[in-house]
Amino acid sequence: MKKRIPVLVLIVALASAGAWYASTRWPHPRDGLLQLHGNVDIREVNLGFRVAGRLKEVLRDEGDEVKAGETLARLDEEPYRDEVAESQGQAASFQARLALLEAGNRPQEIAQAHAQTHEREVTAANAKRVFKRTEELFASKTVSVQERDDAEAGYREAEARLNSAREQLNLLEAGFRAEDIAQAKADLARAQAALASAALRVEDTILKSPSDGVVLTRAQEPGAILQAGTTVVTVSLRQPVWVRAYLQEPDLGRIHPGMRVEVYSDSSPGKAYAGKIGYISPRAEFTPKNVETSELRTSLVYRLRIAVDNADDSLRQGMPVTAKVVP
Q1: pLDDT single digits (tens) 210-238
Q2: Comparing 17-21, 57-61, 237-241, which segment has the lowest mean pLDDT?
Q3: What is the pLDDT at residue 116?
Q4: Is the backbone peptide bond immediately before 240 cis, with ω within 30 degrees of 0?
Q5: Fewer CB within 10 A of the end CB, N or C, for the chain?
Q6: What does the pLDDT read at residue 297?
Q7: Would the CATH topology of 26-42+239-325 be identical to that of 47-75+200-234?
Q8: Nearest to 61 by CA among 73, 49, 74, 79
Q9: Taking each helix axis from N to C terminus, what angle separates 178-203 and 78-103, rounded to the nearest 10 degrees?
Q10: Packed helices 145-174 and 107-139: angle between N→C axes, nearest 10 degrees
Q11: CATH dotted code for 26-42+239-325
Q12: In this structure, are residues 304 and 29 in contact, taking their beta carbons and an 8 Å threshold?
């Protein structure tokens, strides 16, 4: 009897060890509260100028809080202001030319054309009378053939000059062609577009924060010559705050987008942040090494995203958190 007691103790110990190993080797039953494990994911934005130039000043440093629309840095805007002035001059020139074409010719020019036409009418009428008299004298053989031809040539020339004056008067009275006015309008539109682009480049010399946040990195200092798009500061946005969590395949049927969850961090285990499941990846992946779960790391999981509604400064980038699905 005494020999059986150690054997019984050994059997119980082996059974307990087997149960412990099974609890760590295989998943737990999934009929309790579902917990998700992941990390805080806060969006960051690298801010730079859309134009190139010399950095004039940086107004914020690392750790400074910024508001949406707040100025963070400035470029030297003088070269771009010169472009604006040049574009304004060109636009004004094309505007004046269009106004001239639309207004037509001046009344004084038209009056002068009328006077010239009248003058040539008189000259042509006189040349016609001279030609007729010369023809009559030529018929009676009083004048030579040369004199008769000279009189006719003078008459034809006067008629041609009169027709030229009449056409010039018609052109002045009709004004400029529609095609000329259309071209002037196109030139003015192009100049105005160039002016708008120049003005936009002046605005682009001011770097503003797109949202509320905190400056993480100040990458440049005043005096630096920057190319367009060079990062000047990096800002961590206040909103949105996400949790990148992972879920095993057997638990996919227990969640869906829109479900409410409570998010807990190790630094404030008693404080619950309200969240909502927003995205579930359709593709499986291996569990990331920085994610702690009660399952094997080599098991396949599905990535999902949880939007945190009432995030505060306690949630930092990369912080491990636990999300509990609200039943």
Answers
A1: 988 899 999 999 999 999 999 999 998 88
A2: 17-21
A3: 86
A4: yes
A5: N
A6: 47
A7: no
A8: 73
A9: 160
A10: 160
A11: 2.40.30.170
A12: no
Domain ranges of the chain: 26-42+239-325, 47-75+200-234, 85-199
Domain covering 47-75+200-234 assigned CATH 3.40.980.10 in the classification: no
**Mean pLDDT within 186-203:** 95
Mean pLDDT of 114-142: 84
Q: Residue 105: which residues within 8 A CB-CB, separation 6 or more? A: 172, 173, 175
For the chain, give the percent of residues with pLDDT over 90: 29
How many other C-beta atoms can be found within 10 angstroms of the C-beta atom of residue 157? 13
Residue 103's nearest CA partner among 186, 180, 193 is: 180
Give CA separation, 293 vs 91, 151, 163, 248, 289, in Å: 67, 118, 101, 10, 10
CB 192 within 8 Å of CB 186: no
pLDDT (0 to 100) of residue 257:
86
Name the token pair of 50: 């859309």
Of the candidates 286, 282, 263, the one whose C-alpha atom is nearest the C-alpha of residue 36 is 263
* Rounded-to-integer distance, Cα 214 and Cα 42, Å: 11
How far apart CA 111 and CA 98 sit, in angstroms, is 23
Residues 6+ apart with CB under 8 A from 34: 251, 254, 255, 324, 325
Is pTM, for the whole model, over 0.85?
A: no
CA distance 303 to 200: 42
Assigned token pair, 265: 């961090």
DSSP state at residue 111: H
Q: Does domain 85-199 have CATH number 1.10.287.470?
A: yes
